[in-house]
Fold this sequence. Notes:
By secondary structure, the protein is an alpha+beta fold. It has a domain at 82-328: Ribosomal Protein S8, Chain: A, domain 1 (2-Layer Sandwich), CATH 3.30.1370.60. It is 38% helix and 18% strand. The protein contains eleven helices and 14 strands. The protein has helices at residues 22-33, 40-55, 65-75, 104-121, 137-146, 203-212, 232-236, 247-263, 286-301, 317-326, 334-345, and strands spanning 12-13, 17-21, 85-88, 94-97, 123-129, 149-156, 180-187, 190-196, 214-215, 221-222, 228-229, 240-241, 272-279, 329-333. β4, α4 and β5 form a beta-alpha-beta unit. The radius of gyration is 20 Å and the shape is globular. The protein starts with 11 loop residues before the first strand and ends in a 15-residue tail after the last helix.
Amino acid sequence: MTAALPNASKLELRGGRVAIPSATAKLRIMEILAPLGVPDAIAQEVATHLVDASLSGVESHGIVRVLQYAAQYRAGHIIADATPVFRITATGAPEVDGHGAIGIPAMRLAFDEGCRLATQNGIAAVAIRNAGHTGRHGYFADLAAQKGCLTILTGGGKREQWRQVAPHGGIKAMLPTNPWCVGIPGGEQGPNILDFATSKIAGGWIHAARSAGALLPEGCVIDRFGNPTRDPEDYFNGGAILPAGGHKGFALALMAELIGEAMLGPVTVECNWLLICIDTARFRPDGPMQTAAEAILAELRTCPPAPGFAAVEIPGERERNHHQAAQDLIHVPEETWDQIVALAAQSATPLADEASGKTS
């Protein structure tokens, strides 16, 4: 067993962690997805995405998600053998249709096409519909920012199925987590990425806590009576996540819900998404923009840290730093890894694996 890297998790584990080579984790994920009928190219993209999230310290959107995806495939919530399509609608709106499949390839396609259109036209807006879970949005925003694009993404809808977050002043789960993600080319250390749920904690952290037998952070979740709790089971038994920042998080969530459903229409799978891409070079050349950004960021890094903090961290940089420090090892809660291994073992066609699995 090994300790997690600093700031790697929001969970308080009852057990330990194991260090898993990223190649082993990817193979286990593909062994889970293959017998469910997921095409090899999609299985590889999903596995690579989840492993990257774990290496970046975003445990809520990392390899634990394969347990959720497998259950959704088996339940028919998402379709295994469908692929996303980009098109221009009859009204001239660019959109990606996920065709009911896992949403990670659909979101990647939307960012690719959005950046292409923004480079041509200066700005583009792309809708993403009919897709399952779309992964860690900061991953896509980082790649887009490296191409010189400012991106703004938000989504919502189908709250009758995804009752997760209580509105400010309420105790009943009414809204999804309605994420926002903004990415912009940054300074010398790369793009700056804002990627957050409008709730105090992403739903993935609650699933991760349940899988790992862990406690949640204080002040994030209430039980069905409105009492604070750290037990993930209280959430699944009628509780709710609280909005981040009180009325501010609620307001952002409501805007995302209105964009996702009132503007983009009925939701078929999870959320509808709106992605806005802007070619930053239309406003300022890359060199001067990076110089100005670095001056802002460098000044913020010099701020004396508050008690309990080692330094002021810049959004986007912390994930890249964590990825580099991880050295291709994912520090997984032992209970979670055991569940992944057990699920992979059910495959009738295990993939070749030269890695050893757990490491001490």
